């Protein structure tokens, strides 16, 4: 007497007669196996993060711009700044004929001077660093919306480095929208001028003009000619004139010859005439 086939055997015999159903069955088995494997991996990762994983030390800055070294807590407040600074012994006569202060080193156009920063370091606070981590994968309009959502959780007075960090690598109108949001969390005349190029990023032409217009009221005056040239960047012709207009009232006077050369660089003919009008105006006179 022949052995009676089991249900499993009967099932596979039916599949042989229906190849399409057999293929679908095999696909379902593969999907179920993959889902089970993925679930097992997730559980393993959760276990390792909860009981084994040690979080790395969080970096202070994630922007491509090299951050200023953070002063250690164990260093005394009266610590002397590093002595290795490039200085230029040649001091030029100011354009207006006034004598420059001996305490402020004047650099030539081709060899900028590095001036020691005697002010407390502008650190990136933990809440801003956490917000930056939340924004890490966001870009374009999604980043703008995320910054708007994070706005109330940010410190009341952001510094320029923190604004640059939150703006990330965004460009054009999206960077402008982010800056418009972030200046609501800072104070007029509070941003250090040497950090403004970080805020402006790689913006150029009309976008740089608009970004400078947004951030200019929040720059701490006065700004030196060297700092103004860094804010103007590589702009030329009418765009350089337009960038100069918002920051000209913030400039430290009197300007030296090298300051004027830096600021007017890239302008000529009618654009230089307009730049001179913006830089000196009716109230300025040349001796």
Could you please describe the fold and organization of this structure?
Helices cover 48% and strands 0% of the residues. By secondary structure, it is mostly helical. It is elongated, with a radius of gyration of 31 Å. Residues 53-118 and 283-287 have low confidence and may be disordered.
Helix content: 40-55%
- In angstroms, what is the radius of gyration? 31 Å
Mean of all residue-level pLDDT scores: 77
Total number of β-strand segments?
Answer: 0
- Which structural class is indicated by helix and strand composition? mainly alpha
The oligomeric status of these chains comes to single chain
Distance N to C terminus = 125 Å
Major beta-sheet overview: none
Q: How much strand content do the residues show?
A: under 5%
Q: How many distinct helices?
A: 12
List the uncertain runs.
53-118, 283-287
- H/E element order: HHHHHHHHHHHH
Q: Per the principal axes of the C-alpha atoms, what is the gross shape?
A: elongated
Summarize the structure.
By secondary structure, this protein is mostly helical. It contains twelve helices and no strands. It is elongated and about 110 Å long.
Outline the secondary-structure elements:
Blueprint: H1 7-17, H2 19-51, H3 126-135, H4 140-150, H5 160-167, H6 172-182, H7 196-200, H8 205-215, H9 225-232, H10 237-247, H11 257-264, H12 269-280
Helix pairs in contact: 4-6, 6-8, 8-10, 9-11, 10-12
Which key phrases capture this entry?
mainly alpha; disordered C terminus; 287 residues; 48% helix
